[in-house]
Amino acid sequence: MKRIFLKVIVFAFIPFFALSCDPDNQKDEKEEISYEEKARRKTHEATLKYLRDDIMKNYYYWYDQVPNKTYTWQTDIYDYFDALLVKQDRWSWMMDGKTYMDSETGVLSGTYGVALGQPKDHYRDYGVYIRFVYPGGPFDLAGVKRGWEITAIDKEKTEDYLSTDAQGFNDLFNYPSTTRAHTFTFRDPEGNTHTETIIAAESLNTRPGLVKKIFTADDYPGLSAPVGYFHYLSFKADNDVSGKSMLEDITEAMDYFKNNNVKTLILDLRYNGGGDSRASDLLVSYLAPASAVGQVYVKRTHNKKLSSYDAETKVKTPAKAIEALEGDDVSLACKPDSPEFEHLYFITGAGSASASEMTLNGLKPLANLQHVGSVTYGKPNGMYVFLYPEHMAAYDKNDYSGLKYVFLPICFYNANGIGQNIPDTGLVPDNKRPDDLYHDFGVTEDNIAACLYHIVNGTYPDLPEAKPQTRAAGGIDAHLNEYENNKNYGLYTVKPDFF
User: Fold this and answer.
1) CATH code at 145?
2) From CA 3, how far away is CA 170, in angstroms rounded?
3) Are 460 and 377 in contact (CB under 8 A)?
4) Cβ atoms of residues 159 and 476 within 8 Å
5) Are residues 399 and 276 in the same domain?
6) Same domain, 246 and 277
7) Do 169 and 240 share a domain, yes or no?
8) Are 212 and 160 members of one domain?
9) Residues 234-263 pLDDT 10s
10) Would you place residue 483 in the very low, low, confident or very high pLDDT band (cuts 50, 70, 90)?
11) Of 496, 491, 330, 499, nearest in space to 6 by CA
């Protein structure tokens, strides 16, 4: 890439202030600056110039509206990046090199391996529940499941904790200590109490495929054929720390469904914030019917400077999609043929963003597809990934030790093959349903059950009843791990041909 591989913005500009009004003191101060410090300042200013003049004024979708912001060696690069964004851009961001590479290889640092939520929108419940747990993480090893409620931490009731120190409660999960053990009290869906003492992991290797299952009539009466379920957390295409391609979570799931003669698939993207187009292209090649091969599923439109690079991506067969990936130095051990799905069900939520929305939007005109769940995030565009410094030879050898920053500005907009855009307000489901945080992923979970009900009956069931609100909102509104509220959320990156 260049190397291009993937809310209110506040700009705090730090002006240059002389250290003294005395010219002699200024001279002495200048003389005291070391050669290394002078070089550092010069390099920092060169980085800011590269960001503004090379990236933002050429590749940024709103390149002609980028303000000509000045800078000095004291200018914070994160603040400067934000200052270059146009007002309507709530999607672009940058990060340090290590954080980006960790995210691409599935590495979480200092984590309990858990995502939390509050079923407040429909259920009016402000308790804190487990959204999902990463396999092999501290909560998973302690036996904790989705649908469990955290009722206390270190014997302090969750409600009291949030009322007195909501930020401290949030920080416990977002920035956990890996040296201190905390005692958690849980209530499971059956009403049983569990108490576990858990220490956060220093590092956890995760995979994008969270759950894959097959439901039969033994699980859900009335099913006449097996139904597949795949919960896919993020579109990742790089190798993990062991060297295994993240794409194999897709191919292994498809192999599993093909071997079990699955023709109807429930794809759960409710917490999937997007990712790499190589993963979405591969997934689409398996999901789309044979009749869609060769048809356009996404159109990308750039700024005027790059309009000659506007492109259409067509549906490939899985074999052709894998062949293209291998031409890009991707190695896959599992290469199944298509299961040839006849019916697709997409489950989404407010956290379904970017590549998730593009996949759904692209397939809807091409496949027999039903959309269930909550309105999606609303990210109709994508990024190119700029690695800085541009140590291309090292990056080609997978040596990212010199990578300092990664810039991810919006560079193009997406539409499907018939020109339908993704609204900024998100894609609206055919059957709107709240996220059911009271059950694990299975036939009793409301969104999955609604899909199965529709498969059997051809209609959707009524919404579950909202619970009487017994806890006032106020200070117990946790906003825990609500990724969709994070500025750095929603990723769709493409490796372009012109870099």
Assistant:
1) 2.30.42.10
2) 35
3) no
4) yes
5) yes
6) yes
7) no
8) no
9) 999 999 999 999 999 999 999 999 999 999
10) low
11) 491
Instruction: With respect to residue 5, please indicate whether it lies within any of the assigned structural domains.
Output: no
What are the tokens at 311? 């492109």
**DSSP letter string over 363-396?**
HTTTS-EEEEES------EEE--EEES--HHHHH
> 445 and 311 in one domain?
yes
For the chain, helix, strand, coil in percent to 5 are: 30, 20, 50
- The total domain count for the chain is 3
Q: Answer whether 239's CB lies under 8 Å from 330's CB.
A: no
CA 76 remoteness from chain centre: 26
Using CA atoms, how far apart are residues 439 and 366, in angstroms rounded to an integer? Answer: 32
CATH number of the CATH domain containing 451: 3.90.226.10
| Domain membership flag for residue 18 | no
Range list of β-strands (E), 97-200: 107-111, 114-117, 128-133, 149-153, 156-157, 182-187, 193-198
Q: Are 363 and 269 in contact (CB under 8 A)?
A: no
Longest distance between any two alpha carbons in the chain, whole Å: 89
410 with 359, same domain: the answer is: yes
Residue 136 lies inside a defined structural domain of this protein: yes
Cα–chain-centroid distance for residue 44?
Answer: 30
1-30 residue pLDDT tens: 344 443 222 223 223 223 233 444 444 455
Report percent pLDDT > 90 for the chain: 76
Which range marks the domain in which residue 175 is found?
Answer: 109-204+470-482
* Location of structure tokens 């409620």: 149
- In terms of domains, do 200 and 219 share one? no
The pLDDT of residue 470 is above 60: no
Distance CA(342)–CA(450), nearest Å, equals 18
pTM: 0.89
The secondary element (H helix, E strand) that includes residue 53 is none
- Do 296 and 313 touch, CB atoms closer than 8 A? yes
Question: Which segments within 166-252 are labelled E, that is strand?
Answer: 182-187, 193-198, 201-205, 209-215, 227-232
Pairing state between β 311-314 and 114-117: unpaired
Taking residues 364-372, what's their average pLDDT? 98
Beta strands in 242-366 (DSSP E): 264-268, 274-276, 296-301, 311-314, 343-348
